[in-house]
């Protein structure tokens, strides 16, 4: 049987495309979630290290100027927070996309079933 270019063929193509995209969107969402968790952990380590450096600086009898290092750590922490916010926004967009793909798949299935398409 030849594949046409009518509405049924377009619907079938769209359904296939949605089925193809859904796993990729879900996998990307999982990866973004994993990176966000790592970012939070990194931020906590930076905070801990900055606190420890400040404590060491206060306890030293010899004047060691650790302030530049603390500032660098705090700057790195700020960048980590910024990246985490960007990832959070991207993950929210991915969730919305995944939801839209799922809704569109359900809608197209209902249209195909209502049209009497049986996949033959």
UniProtKB/TrEMBL annotation:
What keywords were assigned to this record? Coiled coil
Biological process annotations from GO: endosome to lysosome transport; intracellular protein transport; lysosome localization; lysosome organization; regulation of synaptic vesicle exocytosis; synaptic vesicle exocytosis
Source organism superkingdom: Eukaryota
Its cellular-component GO annotations read:
BLOC-1 complex; BORC complex; synaptic vesicle
Please give the Gene Ontology molecular function terms for this protein.
Answer: SNARE binding
According to the UniProt entry, the coiled-coil residues are 73-107
Q: Which family does it belong to?
A: Belongs to the SNAPIN family.
Name-wise, this protein is Biogenesis of lysosome-related organelles complex 1 subunit 7
């Amino acid at each position: 049987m030849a594949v046409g270019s009518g509405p049924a063929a377009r619907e079938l193509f769209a359904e296939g495309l949605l089925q193809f995209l859904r796993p990729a969107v879900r996998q990307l969402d999982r990866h973004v979630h994993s990176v966000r968790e790592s970012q939070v952990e990194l931020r906590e380590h930076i905070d801990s290290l900055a606190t420890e450096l400040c404590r060491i600086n206060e306890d030293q009898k010899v004047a060691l100027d650790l302030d530049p290092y603390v500032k660098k750590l705090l700057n790195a922490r700020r960048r980590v927070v910024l990246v985490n916010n960007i990832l959070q926004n991207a993950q929210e967009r991915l969730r919305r996309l995944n939801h839209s793909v799922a809704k569109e798949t359900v809608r197209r299935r209902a249209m195909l079933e209502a049209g009497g398409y049986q996949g033959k």
